[in-house]
Design a protein that fits this description.
The chain has 406 residues and is mainly alpha-helical. Helices cover 60% and strands 2% of the residues. The protein contains 19 helices and 2 strands. A hairpin with a 4-residue loop joins strand 1 and strand 2.
Amino acid sequence: MQMLAALASHEPALLGEILLLYGDPRTVGALASTCTELKRFVASSDVWRSLLKLRWAIDLPSNIAFSKHEMQHAARHDSSSSMDAAKLLRWLELDVKSVMSRSFHRAFQCMADHGLLSMPSNAEVYWETTQWEATARALLDWLPMNEKRRLAAFVCSEKHPKACLRRFLRLFSLKGCQTPVEALRLLLLQFPFLPIDAGSGADRVISQFAYNWVADNPESLGNIGMNASSALSDSHDAVYSLTYSIIMLNTDLHNPAIWPKISADEYAASCHLCASLKHVPAVQLHQIHEDIRTSPLQITPMQSEVNTIVRSDGQAEVEVGAQYSIYSNLAHGARAQSARSQREKRPEIDWTVAYYNLLDMGRAGRASLSRTFEDALTLVSRSRAALIGTLIALVAVHAARFLLHE
């Protein structure tokens, strides 16, 4: 503490950077309470304003709309009547975050009602026009993983206009990512939009992700068999389809219930059956297969297990247990194995699911054979009818000739 107090006197800029590294207002407040020099420094510097910007992407507005009761509640033990950065940050961290734990929609609406979220110029004050994207982006840097997943489900909700998603995803730079799989890894670590959570909203994310990667990396289009002169729609379709194939490949290679695993040659051949991926070099597809095989897609730098589903209807988020096949015997608490354990040990096979898959295959085979047999009978019936018709015609001709000779 003596060192921090000395920095407050001689290197205030450096001390400010150190306090921002903590990033937690409670930690900064606790440090400030340890000595008079630190308390004086925090009170007189822009630390609280910087934390407000860092954690919530909010500048202290001049037209903030707080009632007298809310002002007193935000002040807590502070007797001053003005709303400063410290009080606003306290209100956000305690009151708004409490609302956020129940519904991100209501939390952002509360912030908008108090003049903290900007509105487009000349726009009517509707929820759809509230620009909450920057705040959502800042929250993703420090919220715990379960809250990040809830926020991602909210962002992906189809209740929002497409413009919201475009503005939000443009806040993530994909420049320097040589391939879509590299860009996808980067985005997932910052924005965990799991398809299991986002549902159909994941499709909108992947589509916009494809546009953003093409726009940020025109020099890397050759890695997917395209070039700078390729039409934007063609490049988008290629990245869009390739991204979906990467997600499905990740599921195939790292889901313990799937066996046997798809090989690199099978993956490349499967991709080349898609019209938009015919030009992707086979070498690149083999590299993608090896990349995903050795390192699965992750939403955190450490191995993370997801055993729940988070869904949002735009108004609130609901977290429920993972859903399994009605035929599955795998325990609902089963956890996905890591890539290393999968290489060392053959994954468990759900024989109940395998039985019903074989049963469905048998039914499909019998149905196909039945249709083939019916088609053959129809053909024979038509052939017999044609033959009988021909014989009748010949008999009629011969009978006519006989009658003419008589």
